[in-house]
């Protein structure tokens, strides 16, 4: 594996564990035990020759027919200059033709404080007689990790600090006095410990990021007293980052040494560390990339605050609260923003694309365990690709990674992350396709619905007699979806087709991404249902962003075939045994919503849809491709959720309508990065509003009133574009739902009223058809809607998606006998907002006129139809503005 691949993880503060084919869950593993045979003796001789720097002895291990140039290069690599330590570890062996064995070997060499790890494929043959040693017939280097250093603090040199100032993008560290120690590589200093009284100042330029800092600290800048700082930087940047005149060598103080070493040992392992597991017990580190900086700053108020500038990341500035494990700021630096612009896709840095999955997984629900075999069809996107990074739950053990083209492949675990790195035996060109087979087993915790379920505010307390009622526990359910990493997958969501076989105990059932292919199969025989197992098969013939499975006890209640625009959809209704479901009403309601959405957008994205109704104590749902799980409230629930932004008591089908809409928004069209989450949640929310408007089930004015109220209350926490980070610092998901769900839906409603019905719905259909089974962004949506509307909408999106201010507008009305003149004055920045003027006549008749506001001053004359009682603005709550009269 190229060192750049490890560096990509290490730059983010990850720890990489290089482990053999049989390692599991990122834990250290013992060396693979082989019998003391000819191969073992050959590898011991290889290790001894390399450790001695004896090139002649190493060449003597080669077969007479070996390619001399490649073998001599191999010998020179290991012996020149002579290493201080060598470890040769066999990772795999497989028979070849003519009695040959093919070995996969890791060779770790140390030279001073520098380490190098190479993975080699070695073919070997036995001697002609029992006494002859084995010989090497060919060698090929598969991968190499270089630039590893056994980093240690220089305790022989201590510095006095005199007005030291360290500057990184948007960060300043001031330390007037104190002590400093350095850690170096042969290229120069790469780490520093600062001890003394100082101050950190983090001042992000972006308004949304300053809001997040204000939420944490009470001011727009994070200005905190510090007493310890640990810095990592490129050795080539030391002179630019640190003013050497601020450091003066002094006599070493043993107490300072003890303090500095404690700081170093505590903070150095948190970033850029490579754990070589069974190869070496020492701590090995990588140097930061050029211009990259990591600063661990110990503050009085917040504990350790981590600042990282990682130039390889699309958002290269990250400030993290380690104590609370929450991101404070993540954004793109001014320098990178000038090069790239605001918009980016998480797919831009991918080396490969997953085209198809073939997954066979056995689930044991009571242990939350999975035994899986996943085949992935992969297409290489970048030339010179030599490794692939996959996501897979860290808790599972990987039994092996295989390829029909290359055989068994080495994998590397990323400690503390749900990631593995698969080494390829050769560099692959863009366009190459291959299959990977990953076999794994172990516990995987099912995921909660999290932000897709209403938050319980309190528990209602009833009379004592009621509190003594017998509570029946809810039916267990085990959801494995986009955040559980239950199968090996790309590092980001990736559209692919799939076949999934799910095997569960006989008394459980499963629903998964894809159309049910056949009835579940159950092996013959009796006995314990936990031992007998049945298999469900699902086929996702159209591309999906991710795969999901829910395991529980389900009854199939109904199925239907419905027309959905230009497509037909097979509809299945299932529920857990006690979930309160009115079967006919549920089928008709679900079919009606699916057909309505398809009529607006042209078709349904997937040929089948399964609605699973599950027992719960609060509303909510989750909608992966091809199915949705919808919570059904059990009678007697004592949980209160009335204050949640998305609880619409007069719209009982809201959650169903919202989750069904996700099949179009969030699934058929994904989002390019987390900033674009509103393309999923706000769009699903607004389509639920459209259904309420069409079906007249709920009171549309009441829905808009609640959406506007909650959006206004939470808008000061940040713009829609902040995505999941809204409410993250406070740990309050209601803020996320108020802004991304409700404010986002209100923005779509205002856009519809601003550009008109035909342009809005024509644009929505065009956007869906253009971006179906792809990831889109806000700018992509804006461009489509501009074409539909025939006008520029940059200011509209800048205000409502990227901004968080709520406009204030002064309104006056002057009626006469025949007409009324209404005037609007925008009191701050001019925005685009459609505002309804409501005229109530003395006869009781009500008339509404939408006035689009696009200038500082807007005046419009409205003909009257009788004597006027009142004239009001925004009485329908359809605009996110504050009206002053």
Strand-helix topology:
Blueprint lengths: L2 H8 L4 E3 L20 H14 L3 H5 L8 H12 L5 E11 L5 E11 L2 E12 L9 E15 L8 E11 L2 E15 L2 E15 L4 H11 L4 E12 L4 H4 L5 E4 L3 H14 L5 E3 L8 E2 L7 E7 L3 E7 L7 E5 L4 E6 L2 H7 L11 E13 L4 E12 L4 E7 L5 E7 L3 E3 L1 E5 L3 E10 L4 E11 L14 E2 L4 H4 L10 E3 L15 E10 L3 E4 L2 E2 L16 E12 L4 E4 L2 E10 L2 E9 L7 H19 L6 E9 L4 E2 L4 E7 L5 E2 L13 H8 L7 E3 L6 H18 L4 H15 L18 H23 L1 H15 L2 E3 L1 H12 L4 H7 L7 E8 L3 E8 L6 E9 L4 E8 L3 E7 L4 E6 L8 E3 L1
Parallel strand pairs: 1-11, 17-27, 33-34, 34-36, 38-39, 40-46
Antiparallel strand pairs: 1-22, 2-3, 3-4, 4-5, 6-7, 6-10, 7-8, 8-9, 9-13, 11-12, 13-14, 14-15, 15-16, 17-18, 18-24, 19-23, 20-21, 20-24, 22-23, 25-37, 26-31, 27-30, 28-31, 29-30, 32-33, 35-36, 40-41, 41-44, 42-43, 42-45
Q: Please work out how many helical segments DSSP would assign.
A: 17
The span between the termini is 68 Å
> Percent of residues in helical segments?
10-25%
Low-confidence stretches: 1-35, 456-470
* Strand arrangement in the largest pleated sheet: 10-6-7-8-9-13-14-15-16
Account of the 3D structure:
There is one protein chain. This protein has about 900 residues and is α+β, with helices and mostly antiparallel strands. The chain has 17 helices and 46 strands. The model is unreliable at about 1-35 and about 455-470 (pLDDT under 50). α13 (about 700-715) crosses α14 (about 735-755). The strands form 10 sheets. Strands 10-6-7-8-9-13-14-15-16 form a 9-stranded antiparallel sheet, sandwiched between helices. It has an 8-stranded mixed sheet with strand order 21-20-24-18-17-27-30-29, with no helix packed on it. The chain has a 6-stranded mixed sheet with strand order 12-11-1-22-23-19, covered by helices on one side.
């Amino acid at each position: 594996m190229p060192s750049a691949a490890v560096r990509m993880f290490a730059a983010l503060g990850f720890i990489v564990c290089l482990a053999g084919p049989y390692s599991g869950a990122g834990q250290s593993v013992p060396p693979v035990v082989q019998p003391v045979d000819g191969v073992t003796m050959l590898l011991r001789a290889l290790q001894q020759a390399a450790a001695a720097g004896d090139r002649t002895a190493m060449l003597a291990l080669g077969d007479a027919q070996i390619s001399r140039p490649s073998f001599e290069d191999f010998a020179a690599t290991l012996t020149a200059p002579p290493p201080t330590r060598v470890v040769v570890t066999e990772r795999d062996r497989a028979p070849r033709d003519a009695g040959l064995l093919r070995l996969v070997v890791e060779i770790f060499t140390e030279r001073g404080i520098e380490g190098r790890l190479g993975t080699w494929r070695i073919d070997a043959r036995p001697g002609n007689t029992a006494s002859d040693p084995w010989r090497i017939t060919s060698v090929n280097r598969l991968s190499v990790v270089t630039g590893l250093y056994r980093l240690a603090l220089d305790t022989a040199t201590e510095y006095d600090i005199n007005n030291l100032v360290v500057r990184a993008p948007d960060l300043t560290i001031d330390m007037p006095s104190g002590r400093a120690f350095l850690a170096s590589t042969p290229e120069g200093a790469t780490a520093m410990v600062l001890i003394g009284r100082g101050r950190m100042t983090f001042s992000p330029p972006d308004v949304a990021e300053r809001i997040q800092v204000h939420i944490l600290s009470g001011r727009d800048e994070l200005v905190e007293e510090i007493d310890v700082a640990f810095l990592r930087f490129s050795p080539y940047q030391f002179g630019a980052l640190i003013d050497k005149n601020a450091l003066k060598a002094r006599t070493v103080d043993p107490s300072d040494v003890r303090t500095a070493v404690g700081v170093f040992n505590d903070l150095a392992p948190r970033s850029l560390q490579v754990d070589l597991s069974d190869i070496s017990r020492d701590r090995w580190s990588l140097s930061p990339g050029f211009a990259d900086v990591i600063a661990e700053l110990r503050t009085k108020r917040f504990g350790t605050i981590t600042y990282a500038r990682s130039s390889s990341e699309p958002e290269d500035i990250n400030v993290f609260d380690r104590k609370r494990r929450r991101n404070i700021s993540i954004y793109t630096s001014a320098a990178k923003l000038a090069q790239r612009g605001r918009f980016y896709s998480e797919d831009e840095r991918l080396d490969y694309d997953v085209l198809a999955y073939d997954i066979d997984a056995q689930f044991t629900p009571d242990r939350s365990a999975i035994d899986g075999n996943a085949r992935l069809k992969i297409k290489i996107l970048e030339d010179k690709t030599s490794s692939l990074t996959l996501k897979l739950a860290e808790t599972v053990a990987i039994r092996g990674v295989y390829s029909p083209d290359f055989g068994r492949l080495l994998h590397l675990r990323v400690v503390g992350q749900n990631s593995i790195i698969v080494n390829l035996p050769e560099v692959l060109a863009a366009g190459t396709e291959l299959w990977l087979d990953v076999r794994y087993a172990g516990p995987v915790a099912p995921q909660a619905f999290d932000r897709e379920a209403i938050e319980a505010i309190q528990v209602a307390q009833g009379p004592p007699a009621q509190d003594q009622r017998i509570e029946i526990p809810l039916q267990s359910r085990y959801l494995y979806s986009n955040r559980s990493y239950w199968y090996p997958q790309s590092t980001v969501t990736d559209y692919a087709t799939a076949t999934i076989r799910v095997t569960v105990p006989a008394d459980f059932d499963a629903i998964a991404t894809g159309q049910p292919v056949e009835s579940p199969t159950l092996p013959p025989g009796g006995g314990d249902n936990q031992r007998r197992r049945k298999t469900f098969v699902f086929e996702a013939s159209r591309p999906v962003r991710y795969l999901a499975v829910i395991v529980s006890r389900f009854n199939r209640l109904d199925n239907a075939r419905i027309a959905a625009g230009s497509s037909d959809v097979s509809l299945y209704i299932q529920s857990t045994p006690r979930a309160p479901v009115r079967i006919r009403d549920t089928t008709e309601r679900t079919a009606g919503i699916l057909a309505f959405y398809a009529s607006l957008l042209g078709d349904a994205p997937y040929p089948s849809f399964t609605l699973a109704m599950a027992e719960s104590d609060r509303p909510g749902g989750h909608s992966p491709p091809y199915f949705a799980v919808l919570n059904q409230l059990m009678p007697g629930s004592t949980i209160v959720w009335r204050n949640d932004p998305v609880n619409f008591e007069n719209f009982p089908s809201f959650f169903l309508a919202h989750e069904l809409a996700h099949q179009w928004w969030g699934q058929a069209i994904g989002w390019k990065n987390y900033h674009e989450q509103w393309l999923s949640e706000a769009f699903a929310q607004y389509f639920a509003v459209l259904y309420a408007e069409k079906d007249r089930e709920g009171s549309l004015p009441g829905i808009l009133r609640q959406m506007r109220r909650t959006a206004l209350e939470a808008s000061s926490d940040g713009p829609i574009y902040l995505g999941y980070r809204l409410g993250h610092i406070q740990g309050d998901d209601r803020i996320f739902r108020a802004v991304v769900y409700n404010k986002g839906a209100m923005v779509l409603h205002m856009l519809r009223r601003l550009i008109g019905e035909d342009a809005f719905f024509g644009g929505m259909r065009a956007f869906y058809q253009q971006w179906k089974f792809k990831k889109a962004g806000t700018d992509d949506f804006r461009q489509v809607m501009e074409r539909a509307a025939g006008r520029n909408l940059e200011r509209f999106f800048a205000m409502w998606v990227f901004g968080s201010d709520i406009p204030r507008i002064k309104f006056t009305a002057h009626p006469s006998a025949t007409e009324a003149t209404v005037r609007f004055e925008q009191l701050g920045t001019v925005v685009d907002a459609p505002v309804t003027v409501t005229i109530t006549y003395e006869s009781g008749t009500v008339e509404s006129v939408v006035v689009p506001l696009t200038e500082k001053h807007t005046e419009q004359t409205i003909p009257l139809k009788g004597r006027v009682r009142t004239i009001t603005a925004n009485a329908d709550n359809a605009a996110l503005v504050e009206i002053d009269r």
